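so ive been stuck on this for like two days lol. basically i have the seq below and the ligand is NAP, smiles is in there too. i just want the complex predicted, nothing fancy, no docking runs or whatever. if the output looks off dont worry ill sanity check it later, just need somthing to start from for the group meeting slides
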Amino acid sequence: MKNYILITGASSGIGYEMALQLAEKGYHLIIVARRVEKLKRMQRELTTAYGIDVHYFGKDLSDTKQAIDLYHEIQMQGFIVTHLVNNAGFGAYGQFVDTSLEEELKMIQLNISSLVILTKLFAQDMIKRNEGRIMNVASLLSFIPFPYYSIYSASKSFVLSFTETIAAELAGTGVIVTALCPGTVETPFHTSAMRRTNAMFANKPMLAATVAKSGIQLLLHGKGKKIVGFNNWFISNLPRITPDKIMMKIKKHLASERI
Ligand SMILES: NC(=O)c1ccc[n+]([C@@H]2O[C@H](COP(=O)([O-])OP(=O)(O)OC[C@H]3O[C@@H](n4cnc5c(N)ncnc54)[C@H](OP(=O)(O)O)[C@@H]3O)[C@@H](O)[C@H]2O)c1
């Protein structure tokens, strides 16, 4: 039986780049996202180029039932997931009172609920094997929640605190749980409204390939959390030395539309 790295949200951005770079290193992959055509193409290209095994599952993980189904389908096919990357996620931008509640509830299901489901189910198997690695993709906003990104920021704060607590609980079991915390990354994640904010001009977006490389290092060899890039590390520490009132003013300015 073969060992696999499972990546959710592998059809685009950071997840896609991680899949490419892990394939180059010879790892077998299970890739998950909604756009099956993209996954199918990736399967064809990566198996041809690198001679690895790639299996894909078209799932909408904003529906928690599909997250549970994903686990059971992988079990039934006898694939062993040694590494899990909970990367799929999306954000929304706007005044909380005006944004779509339906979209926000989906965001909570995807960014939080399905991540918890997959972590729990795969961690249980990993503990039985006395080894495994889980990497959850959090964000710089896990440390500095931004106005106009209320639910997204809160979801990523959840991801970081959840990851840190279970990493401590699982210490000694052979299962290592880590959190990747990117700043702004150039991917289709950003809507046109997000792209007009001051933050997009103040902090140059990093390349998805650079963030993926950092993520792979953390996934394969690291521990704890990793904030990608020195600038982002510095920004993540600003709340420690800046009064709340000033910090919120800075964040509101950064999250506002550039005029
Ligand atoms: N870009 C940034 O600036 C940034 C910064 C910090 C953290 N992050 C985090 O990094 C992660 C990856 O984001 P990205 O920037 O690479 O964005 P992206 O290019 O938009 O990729 C998101 C991935 O998630 C998948 N996805 C979205 N909704 C899904 C759903 N309902 N069910 C299953 N898969 C779904 C998408 O595939 P389908 O559309 O095919 O389903 C896609 O593969 C996210 O968790 C994001 O919050 C991003």
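The longest strand covers residues 80-86. The radius of gyration is 18 Å.
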